[in-house]
Amino acid sequence: MVGPAAAEDANDDLLFADESSDGDATDGRRNPPWLILIVDDDHEVHAITRVVLGDASFENRELRFLSAYSAKDARAILAAQRDIAVILLDVVMETDDAGLTLVRHIRDNLGNRQVRIILRTGQPGQAPERQVIAAYDINDYKAKSELTAQKLYTATVAALRSYQHISLIERGRQGMEAVLEAADHLFAQPTQARFCEAVTARLAALLPQPGAVLLCADGPDGPRRLSAATTGPGAPAPTVPDAAQADVHATLRDGLPRWTDGHAVVPLRNRRQAPHALCVLTDTPLPEVEQRLIDLYAGKAGSGLDTLHLLERLQEAQVATVHALGKLAEYKDEVTGDHVKRLGRWATAIAHELRARNLFTDELDDEFCGMIGLASVLHDVGKVAIPDAILRKPGRLDPDEMTQMREHAAIGGSILRDAGGAGERNCLTMGAEIAESHHEKFDGSGYPHGLSGDAIPLAGRIVAVADVFDALLHRRPYKKAWEAEEVLDLLRGESGRHFDPRVVDAFLAVLARDGLPQVA
Predict the structure, then answer these.
(1) What does the alpha-carbon distance between residue 117 and residue 103 come to, in Å, rounded to a whole number?
(2) Whether residue 441 lies in the annotated active site
(3) Which pTM value belongs to this model?
(4) 192 and 58 in one domain?
């Protein structure tokens, strides 16, 4: 900290001089100046303040002065400059309480609690100190008659130090909120690729200055970039510079962060994945509060990577379980596994087409479209309870056999509903809906419950179309394969009776776009 030249003057009286330079020029230091707003209707007060504090600095940052000669002028400056650190404020200007009214505007209307306000008055009787201190959010009160050069300097530096501490606390609070919000966003990413992209994009948005963020992992020829993001004009290109390569490699090896003037490397601490590290590139060193926030963010990202890994393993186990159940039903029915694979593709394509047409907007979300293909594999799981003699009968079933066969829909729904639980929608609960409803008909003549129209679950209506289409195209023990045009004619003819017309139209659009399948 360097004091003003006048600070050590033996004569500590108030200084009066002609108005000097406003101190806008900098000495080439990278640190921005502290902004000091002088609000006073006396031009001489502005000049004196600039002379006394003109060559002062605090924490290697010089002072830059802004002048307002009325409360109205000050309001305009405050609206344009949100990073003013200290206001040296007169009380009596265009009105007897103009300064005090400005204080209320700053604190209440602008919501600015950080700027430090030093009240300077030449008429203490207009604003008694005890009353003003009690009623207004000001940080110091000085009568102009007592403001020597040293006292003005001391009051200003004390106010700057207070502003600095409050700003750090506020930046830490805002940064913490941003990190937690970013972490929530990371935990919502469904795949590792999207997770990696979100990690760098979110951290780049948190940086207080232009820069770049890279997520790196080990590669055969050294650290490899998984994702990158930049922020701010003039941000460096998203590649790991040669100067940072060694630090990235070392952090991937030992899991320790590294902070330098041009870059920072922070590990993503995780237990189940290969080592990952964030490389942050900036033109200036990161302040300590930013380092702590980045380290916290990296810890959250590492936990997110572990969670995503566990979720993927869980999803793989769920897929394996669903396919095992599906294969069990196929084994009983002598149907090849290709049927359920094709059915899943058709059901997914129909769902996406319906969504593109803005139909069923309250149901067709990402989760539904991503889940229906796998859930459709379970549509006939209830056949495990049907006797083989009925399932494999080469001819038409008699009425009693047909009654037994139709029980598979309700049985499958019951099995899967019990397995899926009563919580949020999952693959098994959607599978239960499909198993129980894919034999319902749009006109209400289907089974097992005789549902009609939109009372039939949407997933069941979609799978009903895809299942009939694929079943008729392929040979079964009890029937020959149909020609494709015959199947399409049936779908059109049953639209509105057996099938939901909107689902049929969407499926026909999918077939027109992608082409009819080739049947061996």
Answers:
(1) 8
(2) no
(3) 0.56
(4) no
